[in-house]
Design brief:
This protein is α/β, with parallel strands linked by helices. It contains 17 helices and eight strands.
Length: 367
C-alpha cells in the first residue's frame, strides 16, 4: 500500500476493525458497485461486508433509476414481477461478491461476505426456506455469499441443514437472547454433522441481533410508566447479554474440538444500528457494542457518522448488562414480550416490503 493510500484510510473505521468489530454496510444498489464507490469504501473505509433485505431492494429498485433498463427489458419480455426481482437481486449480489472477493481471500474467508435473504413469507416454513436457500446459493454461485434465514423457531432446522450442506448463513431477525442461543446451537450441530462425515468445516455464519428496534419498543413502555431515566438502555444491555452467551457457547471442549478441525465462530452481527430517536448520539449503537469477533452492519448514514466522529471506547460490548436489565424488569417491562412482538413485526415488515416491491415492479413493467 502506498503512503497516499494509507493516508486516505479512515482512522475511526480502521480503529473499529482493529478492535475486532468488522464494519459492514446495510445497503446494496447497483450504482454503488458500478461507480466504483464500493471498491473505494473497501480500500479507504475498512468496509468488510454488505447486507441486503427486502426493504433495501424496495428502495433501490423503486426509488432510483439504476434499474430502468432492466425494468424496460422485463416489460418487453413478459417476465413476472418475482422473476424480475430475483434477476436483479442475484445479479447485484453476485457483482458485490466479486468486489469483496479479495477481502474474503485475504481475511481467511472470515470476512468479505454479501448477504441475500430468502423470501420473508417463508419465515415459518423450514422446508421451503431451505429450498430457497439452496436455489439462491446455486444461482449466485459465489463462495463469499451468505444466505439470510430468519431466526424463528421454525427456521432453526433450516439453519442447521444449510450449514450441514455447506451454505454460509446469516441468521436474521434475532431479538431475544434465547432465540440467539437456539441458532448458535443449530450452527454447532451443522458443523458437527459435517465433521462426522469428514467434510470441511469452512462454513461461515453470523447471527444478526437487532438493536435499535428494541429501544424503540421498550422506550415507549418506559415512558408510559414514567421511567424516562431508563430510556435508551434496553437494546445495548440485551445485545451485551447475547455477547456474553456467545462467549460461553464458543468456548469449552465442544467448541475447541470443532475449532481445532478448522471451524470459525458464528460471529454476533449487530443489525438495525441506525438510531431511531434523534435524542441519542448517532453512533451510539456502534460505540457501545465494540468487541472481538463481532460485526456491525450500518446504514450508510451511520457509517459516515462514525467515520466522521465515532470513537472506539475499548471492548464496550463486554460490559455487564445485568444492572440495566434488572432495572428495566423491575420498572415493569417484560423484555420477552417485547422481543416476541418485535420478531412477529419484523417478519411482517419484510413481507410488506416485498409485497410493495413486487407491486411496484408490476406497475413499472406491466407484468
Amino acid at each position: 500500500m502506498s503512503t497516499t493510500q494509507a493516508s486516505r484510510i479512515n482512522a475511526n473505521l480502521s480503529s473499529l476493525l482493529r478492535a475486532g468489530t468488522s464494519p459492514w454496510l446495510d445497503l446494496l444498489r447497483r450504482s454503488l458497485i458500478s461507480s466504483g464507490e464500493l471498491a473505494r469504501m473497501i480500500a479507504e473505509d475498512s468496509l468488510r461486508g454488505m447486507t441486503s433485505n427486502p426493504s433495501i431492494f424496495e428502495k433501490a429498485i423503486l426509488e432510483s433509476d439504476d434499474y430502468d433498463d432492466e425494468l424496460e427489458h422485463a416489460r418487453g419480455h413478459g417476465l413476472d414481477a418475482n422473476a424480475v426481482y430475483e434477476r436483479i437481486a442475484i445479479a447485484d449480489v453476485r457483482s458485490a461478491c466479486d468486489v469483496f472477493r479479495d477481502t474474503w481471500e485475504s481475511n481467511g474467508h472470515r470476512d468479505g461476505f454479501v448477504s441475500l435473504e430468502v423470501p420473508a413469507d417463508l419465515a415459518h416454513d423450514p422446508e421451503r426456506t431451505l429450498e430457497a436457500a439452496r436455489d439462491y446459493w446455486a444461482r449466485v454461485d459465489r463462495p463469499n455469499l451468505m444466505i439470510k434465514i430468519p431466526g424463528t423457531e421454525e427456521g432453526v432446522a433450516a439453519i442447521e441443514q444449510a450449514i450441514y450442506e455447506g451454505i454460509n448463513v446469516n441468521v436474521t431477525l434475532l431479538f431475544a437472547v434465547d432465540a440467539y442461543e437456539r441458532v448458535a446451537e443449530a450452527y454447532l450441530r451443522g458443523l458437527e454433522r459435517r465433521q462426522a462425515e469428514g467434510l470441511s468445516l469452512g462454513v461461515a455464519s453470523v447471527a444478526s441481533f437487532f438493536v435499535s428496534r428494541v429501544d424503540t419498543a421498550v422506550d415507549e413502555r418506559l415512558q408510559a410508566l414514567g421511567r424516562e431515566d431508563l430510556l435508551g438502555r434496553a437494546a445495548i444491555a440485551n445485545a451485551r447479554l447475547a455477547y456474553r452467551r456467545f462467549g460461553a457457547i464458543f468456548s469449552g471442549p465442544r467448541w475447541e474440538a470443532l475449532h481445532r478441525a478448522g471451524a470459525g465462530v458464528q460471529r454476533p452481527l449487530w443489525a438495525s444500528t441506525g438510531v431511531k430517536n434523534p435524542r441519542y448520539p448517532d453512533t451510539m449503537y456502534v460505540e457501545e457494542l465494540v468487541a472481538p469477533h463481532t460485526v456491525n452492519t450500518m446504514p450508510l448514514a451511520t457509517l459516515q457518522a462514525f467515520a466522521q466522529h465515532g470513537r472506539v471506547p475499548g471492548p464496550s460490548a463486554t460490559r455487564d448488562p445485568q444492572p440495566d436489565l434488572d432495572a428495566i424488569r423491575e420498572a415493569g417491562v417484560d423484555l420477552k414480550e417485547v422481543t416476541d412482538r418485535l420478531l412477529a413485526d419484523g417478519v411482517k415488515l419484510f413481507e410488506d416490503a416485498m409485497s410493495q416491491l413486487l407491486d411496484g415492479i408490476r406497475k413499472r413493467t406491466g407484468a
